[in-house]
Amino acid sequence: MILAPLFKMLEAGLNLRVPLLMKEMMDEAIPAAMAGEGNGLVWFVGVELFLDGLFGFLLAVAAQYFAARAATGYSARLRELLFGKIQSLRYEELDSAGTSLLITRMTSDCDQVQNGLNLALRLLLRSPFIVFGAMILAFTIDTKAALIFAVLIPILLVITFAVMLRMAPLYRKVQKRLDRVTQDTRENLSGVRVIRAFRNERGEIREFIENHENLKGFQLAVGRISAILNPATTLLLNASVLLLIYVGGVRVNMGVLTQGAVVALVNYMLQILVELIKLANLVIQITRAYASLKRISEVTSMESEARVEGTVNAGAENEGVPAFTEAPSVRFEHVSLTYQGAGEAALSDLSFDAKSGEKIAVIGGTGSGKTTLVSLIPGYYRATEGEILLDGKPLSAYDERSLRQSVRTVFQKAVLFSGTIRENLCFGLTEEEEQKITDEELYEALRASDAYDVVMEKGGLLGPCEQGGRNFSGGQRQRLTIARALVSKPRLLILDDSSSALDFATDAKIRASLAALPWNMTVFTVTQRAATAMHQDRILVLDEGRLVGEGTHEELIENCPVYREIVESQT
User: Fold this and answer.
1) Tens of pLDDT along 445-455?
2) Range scoring the smallest mean pLDDT among 114-123, 284-293, 327-336
């Protein structure tokens, strides 16, 4: 960051010497040689010009190297900061930001900032230094001719900054349209099977073209404004060169100026021309980089109470609370949750107790709030009203990493990562924990989830797993994610409709295996199957975000119309 501008300034100083050396060559060296005084001065000035060019080239290469190092390093740190921030955001913050927006921030916006910083390090000091340096040296040659420089430079600066102020908001709009195009692309790639199943390719292509044309329109508008800058500055400077040659020619005829002085003044004017063209491009790039940096700062400035790597939650009452050694009890006290931007609450005034080691089923119709309820227990979402207690203490009292180690969630959508099966089973463990765990412990978790035979067919624990688990069926992926949750021997297990792709026999087999595990564990099972719910210790029945029934299967058949309707519809 320091060396790149320093070397560029040294190079600029050498460039500013060149017109003076040419003036010396024309006014002194060549006339002396023609007068028969020898070519010594011509050779001396010529060698100076050669050395100036050589050292200028070396300094430019060094400046480019350090500018690239600094810009790339800054961009890398920025991506690390942004990725760390994204990892720390809670679910509601990720929902409000949107995946496509975050992807654009991590890719396009970071690239724009990198390119802007690279150019700024090389030109932000160099170009103004040459512009004003050339003007000052022009005054040392001839004051009257140099007045052209004094009038021209402010006009060019006004044009440059006017264009910059006009373009800054437009670039932000361009990036927002780019977010939309990225979102369309991502949705089409992730939902390609559904799109083709419904033969809706033409509709998606039409929507993409519409959004893409919108982006193109804004990009063309920005391009038209930025395109004004180079021709306008070039036109003004070339007109100034003509005026300078005219004024210089008149003053040469008057005997006030030498021909070498006029050539030096024209050289300084051409240097200003080149630098202002560079400065115009720099202004365009910095404007884009500034707009991208503001977009990045919108994400990095998002406030989140989530923490990474075992730091304590904000407002923790007891720092460093260890992981649960026994299955925890769970209590909801008048808990309500309203999603950001939602018109009404997803959960309303929920109150219930789950005893230590109890097996709880959560059942209800689609959209009744089952997943929302269990997402509150590990702190994925924060309750907008009420309080959640684990073993009599609020969630904020627990160290987040310890809490997540003891509370494992198996989601309905089974997500596996590219790598080996062993790496997927050990996902979420520290390096030390992963080294300590034995293959037999992994096999135990696989047997409990009825995934042992699946893994053996794929080549054992070192068998390959493709991105998203594409080389496994839906049911196999769900069984592997259950095994992954069991590896750390959690004290509270949340199964969020994680058997939806399994047949009834496999589901029953896994339930029996979980009940036979050697450690005590509280289990919450989200399900739409009455056959699964009826075998749990207690059932919670939700309807439109409210708890409308609580008890055993027999009690709810007698007392809860909603549960009775679910059972009758399935049996």
Assistant:
1) 999 999 999 99
2) 284-293
On whether the CB atoms of residues 115 and 289 are closer than 8 A, the answer is yes
Cα distance between residue 299 and residue 4, in whole Å: 30
* pLDDT, greater one: 308 or 461: 461
The DSSP line for 355-402 is -TT-EEEEEESTTSSHHHHHHHTTTSS--SEEEEEETTEEGGGSBHHH
Provide long-range contacts, Cβ within 8 A and 24+ apart, for 560-565.
562/364, 562/365, 563/363, 563/530, 563/539
For tokens 């007045």, name the residue. Answer: 147
The 10 Å Cβ neighbour count of residue 114 is 22
Q: Strands 538-543 and 359-364: what pairing? A: parallel
**Percentage of the chain modeled with pLDDT above 70:** 96
Query: How is the beta sheet containing 359-364 ordered, strand by strand?
Result: 407-410, 492-496, 522-527, 359-364, 538-543, 546-551
d(CA 301, CA 109) in angstroms, rounded, equals 16
Supply the pLDDT for residue 322: 56
| Residue-range domain boundaries for the chain | 3-300, 330-413+489-570
From CA 181, how far away is CA 355, in angstroms rounded?
49
Q: Which helix or strand (DSSP H or E) is residue 335 part of?
A: strand 330-337
Partnered with residue 312 across adjacent β-strands are: 399
Structure tokens at 203: 């509709």
Say which residues have a Cβ less than 8 Å from residue 129's Cβ, sequence separation at least 6. Answer: 9, 12
CB distance 21 to 49 below 8 Å: yes
- Closest of 390, 416, 411, 346 to residue 522, by C-alpha: 390
Average pLDDT, integer, range 407-435:
89
CATH class of 3-300: mainly alpha
| 202 within 8 A of 322, measured Cβ to Cβ | no
Contact 170, 221 (CB under 8 A): yes
Q: DSSP code of 29?
A: I
Region for 386 from its dihedrals, namely left if φ exceeds 0, alpha if ψ lies in -120 to 50, beta otherwise: left
CATH class of 330-413+489-570: alpha beta
3-state DSSP assignment of residue 309: coil
Answer yes or no: are the C-beta atoms of 11 and 56 closer than 8 Å: yes
pTM, to two decimals: 0.69
SS3 category, 543: strand
Find out whether 182 and 98 touch, Cβ atoms under 8 Å: no
- Tokens coding 30: 């060549």
Tokens (6 digits) for 243: 């005026």
Res. 315 pLDDT band, cuts 50 70 90: very low
Residue written as tokens 């720092």?
319
